[in-house]
Design brief:
The protein has 19 helices and no strands. The protein is an all-alpha fold. Helix 3 packs parallel to helix 5 and helix 15 crosses helix 16.
């Protein structure tokens, strides 16, 4: 198990505080879009196709976009810096959100799929903000730095349900679909997020490559013995090393569990007759779990070690999925989805920090991209299975799948400890 990090005290330079605040504020503007994709995406599919069997496809597209873009964008940011990759992602997200909004106006399933894929690729590319955060801080502060950036997404908790509630009220008078109108409001927020990223200086990659210029008392890890040839970076290099392998699997399992639960939450609540606004507010509590505790979770991971936060996080997603699987009312479903959010946050922050710790700055974008690609692939498979599984066997079966998926890294950990 990872040992706690050294108790060295660092003074965070004002420039790095400023950059971190800009990234966090950018997340405030752009985070609402992901809430729309997960919260009402399944309902958009059902409105166009009339089939619950395809309900998981928008969540699957978020996973597919993550799988497709995470490693290539990591390669771009490793080569050219973090800001160009982030801004490229936000441009894609801008194009995608307009396409998704228009798809509901003409009830085009193909246009919805294309727009959601482009939007997801853009937003997942913009997640290089998290890599940028790990660049700007030494290991002792790295996990909580991830927490500060993720905290910006909390604004989406307020913005997303307000947008949906307003759209639900005014759309009929405008001749628009309530499910499509919020997407046509998103470009204003995305442009604001792009402006904030533009003001980040210098590029976080440069900070990471010159970290001692910003933290004079930082002591880098000891250099390998003379004559040692460092392994060339590659996916297999990460997978052969037990800590990074388990970090990748924990992140993927938590993401897959959450993908299923988010589809399940929307469908369960709709099945029981709750309104779009009620569903949006339930998803708001899920997002509160995802982002509301990222800073304390990051501090725990920095103080006690990555694995002591990562594995309990995965276990928490199992408890949450169980509550959503056997619902009594909106309260129990909301508590369950809230716990899944907390568990995901713990696993994601700790696993990302662990992988960042094991990677050089020039490789970090690709290393975290590999983890995100595995998470995206798991999310795709989970979401694609969810719709047909619900269609054939009913809602509870999807919850059971989420529980089994999250159990995988815990079993792997138990096996790894024996060998």
């Amino acid at each position: 198990m990872n040992q706690p990090l050294s108790p060295v005290t660092y003074v965070i330079p004002a420039l790095i505080k400023r950059n971190t605040a800009l990234f966090s504020l950018s997340q405030c503007f752009t985070g609402a879009g992901m809430q729309l994709a997960y919260g009402i995406g399944p309902l958009m599919v059902m409105a166009i196709t009339g089939s619950a069997g395809l309900a998981g496809i928008t969540v699957a597209l978020m996973g597919l976009s993550r799988f497709l873009v995470s490693y290539p964008i990591g390669k771009i940011t490793d080569a050219f810096g973090r800001k160009p990759g982030i801004l490229l992602g936000l441009v894609l997200a801008l194009a995608g959100t307009v396409t998704v909004g228009m798809s509901m106006q003409i009830l085009s399933f193909g246009m919805l799929v294309f727009g959601m894929l482009v939007f997801g690729m853009g937003m997942n590319a913009a997640n290089q903000m998290r890599v940028a955060a790990t660049d700007m801080f030494p290991p002792r502060l790295r996990a909580q730095a991830l927490g500060y950036v993720a905290l910006g997404s909390m604004a989406g908790l307020v913005i997303s349900p307000i947008m949906i509630a307003v759209a639900e009220r005014i759309a009929p008078g405008l001749g628009q679909y309530p499910l499509g109108l919020p997407w046509l409001l998103m470009p204003i927020l995305i442009v604001g997020g792009m402006a904030l990223v533009h003001f980040v200086r210098p590029d976080p990659k440069l900070i990471g490559q010159n970290i001692r210029d910003y933290y004079p008392n930082y002591v880098p890890p000891p250099a390998p013995p003379a004559g040692t040839v460092a392994p060339k970076f590659g996916t297999m290099t990460l997978l052969r090393h037990a800590p990074t392998r388990l970090g990748i699997v924990c992140n993927a399992a938590a993401q897959g569990n959450m993908s299923i639960v988010m589809v399940l939450t929307s469908l369960v609540l709709q099945h029981h007759g709750y309104s779009l606004t009620a569903i949006a507010f339930s998803h708001t509590f899920h997002s509160l779990g995802m982002f509301g505790f990222t800073i304390p979770l990051g501090k725990l991971a920095d103080r006690f070690g990555r694995e002591r936060v990562m594995y309990p996080g995965v276990a928490t997603t199992i408890v949450g999925a169980l509550l959503v699987t056997v619902p009594a009312d909106i309260v129990s479903v909301t508590i369950g989805t809230y716990l899944v959010g907390i568990g995901w946050a713990a696993a994601n922050v700790a696993a990302t920090a662990l992988i960042a710790d094991k990677s050089e700055t020039a490789e970090r974008g690709r290393a975290i991209g590999v983890a995100e690609s595995f998470a995206g692939a798991t999310s795709v498979l989970a979401a694609l299975i969810t719709g047909p599984l619900i269609e054939w066997t009913g809602l509870p079966a999807a919850g059971v799948l989420a529980i089994l998926l999250a159990a995988v890294p815990l079993l792997m950990r138990a096996f790894t400890r024996r060998v």
